Amino acid sequence: MLDGPRIAPLSGGPARKLVVLLHGVGADGADLIEIGRQWAPLFPDVAFVAPNAPDPCDWDPTRYQWFRLTVRDPHEYWTGASAAAPKLDAFLDAELAAHGLSDSDLALVGFSQGTMMVLQVAPRRLKPPAAIIGYSGRIAGQSHLAPETIGHAPVLLVHGALDEVIPVEAMQETAAALRDAGYSVETLVRPGLGHGIDAVGLQAGAAFLHEAFGAPSA
């Protein structure tokens, strides 16, 4: 079973919503839980968790990866994300059950390979989450999306214009595939930003969550 660092609701009460943060290849949950630390004061009734991916990273066994990246082609993305999806689905089911919440109380946030996992799992769950946020990522298996989508959730994609790992064009391709499958998609390109997340992107994500969770933007 996956596990990783957590932030309990700052209200001190039970969680009313859950945000799951998925890191990229060569990182761990401690990397992405920092987003939760930034957002927690804005969402005092929200629990945050950032699970470590299931496999040790190929080039640093102290870190993790959702799936192996060797040739970086669409087939590899699809097969890797598909293989890892059941482990993530099981983790989400367990976390929601532990908090007594449903998918409508859930937001999925990913960075890089974590975004691939968010976009692999969310469309295929029996009930859609409240929100999907993808930073510096792309979709795996575009042609599979529309026929396999079960439910829709609002999507925010944020990408650095100077991303040297996953080019910004991948965000546009991902947004187009999602829209073709019936999703409402917002995009934000950050000038001068490489493969990372900046303060403006974090603010946009927080505002998106406020709207998805039924609260006014901060």
TrEMBL record:
Domain of life assignment: Bacteria
Q: Which Gene3D superfamilies match?
A: alpha/beta hydrolase (3.40.50.1820)
In terms of SUPFAM superfamilies, this protein maps to: alpha/beta-Hydrolases
Name of one Pfam family that matches: Abhydrolase_2
Identify the keywords attached in UniProt to this record, alphabetized: Hydrolase
Task: Enumerate the spans annotated as Phospholipase/carboxylesterase/thioesterase domain.
Answer: 13-210
Is rRNA processing found in the keyword set? Answer: no
Protein's UniProt keywords contain Hydrolase? yes
Q: Into which family does the record put it?
A: Belongs to the AB hydrolase superfamily. AB hydrolase 2 family.
Quote the protein name from its UniProt record. Phospholipase/carboxylesterase
Q: Which organism does this record belong to?
A: Kaistia geumhonensis
